[in-house]
Amino acid sequence: MQRSKSKSAFDRAKGLIPGGVNSPARAFGGVGGTPIFIDHAAGPYLFDIDGNKYIDFIGSWGPMILGHAHPKVVEAIQTTAIKGSSFGAPTEMESQMAELIISMVPSIEMVRMVNSGTEATMSALRLARGYTGRDLIVKFAGCYHGHVDSLLVQAGSAATTLGVPSSPGIPKGCTADTIVLRYNDIEELKNTFNKMGDKIACVILEPVVGNMGLIPPSSGFLKELRGLTTQFGAVLILDEVMTGFRLSAGGAQQLLGIEPDLTALGKIVGGGLPVGAYGGKKEIMAKVMPSGPVYQAGTLSGNPLAMAAGIVVLTELKKNPPYEKLEKYAQRLEVGLREAAYSSKIPHVINRVGSMWTLFFTSTPVTDYDSAKLSDTKMFSKFFWAMMDRGVYLPCSQFEAAFNSITHDDAIIDLTLKAARDSFAEINS
Ligand SMILES: *Cc1c(COP(=O)(O)O)cnc(C)c1O
User: Fold this and answer.
1) Which residue of 201, 233, 328, 331 sits 20 to 30 Å from the alpha carbon of 148, by its own alpha carbon?
2) What is the pTM of this model?
């Protein structure tokens, strides 16, 4: 497959933009080689500037659940743009968006729009701290919540560690109040709350993790979390930036039956435009300025173009819930991938919840960050490039989830499975 134009575009970009990209995951650091530069996209397909066509399993890392360039979304953006793209003053569309979110996400009674998932989690944290008057926050190793200083912490071990920043430029003070625990570890969670539960402002987590590869919560983990946070008066924040409107119309919280105090949203909520949102119980949300004292603001928040795109997507998902269909096709894909991997005798684990999935190159169950890290990333890279050469664009890291859209139908799954069988055969030889 010819990719020379992408190569020169990347060389040019590297002299202008750090690493040639505006977000690190795009640089193909996890698989080596050169990222493809996109010309356009339609439905399940991406077209690069060399004229190659790929079946896309990233979907802009989650937002494109209706497929690329959905006609209704394109039309909404066009008709809105003609009327002006930003006013810095309220529009009725913002209430329409808020009404939609509140009607779909069970625990949200009031919501504030922001411009990214990072802003949503950052603001939810501040609100939780402002509301409780406490400082400590609990997160889980391997969960990603955007590039918020106090959340950019990983734990290297199972031990309960007070956070050490995982990026230069974050003062120790920023993470000193961040406690990092092991995902799915109920005992560690209980011990932590019993020791210092009355100092914990909030617990933040991905209810189904997408950011260490796909990892579902164990039965009992979320229930215990809800119980402990309620008992100790801590705010439970579900980061549904990835899972919101993806795993069901009401997100992971509806699918799994857990009621958080606050929810962070992003990705799908903007229909492919830069949007985030945080919302939850009225009593807590009322503390946000100007109705309350907790400061949070944004020049472009609730932007008309973004509202228009998001409203169309959410309305579509509410009116014609595609979740059974997404489940059916994703399940077919999972079964087919497993068969292909088995016959190649390459160790593998496939984790999947609805239309989110990861093929891990490991032989042991993947339930947390440590077990995810046992994966053979070299084997993953080989498989990734073998699939690329056959026109299938997977997430360019072992530790990212893949996404199906409603345009990934039987024909697309067939093509993908054929590519997978050939790819497994190639990397096994
Ligand atoms: C993508 C993501 C974020 C960050 O959202 P941005 O829009 O990239 O700032 C936060 N949390 C989760 C779970 C995400 O998947």
Assistant:
1) 233
2) 0.96
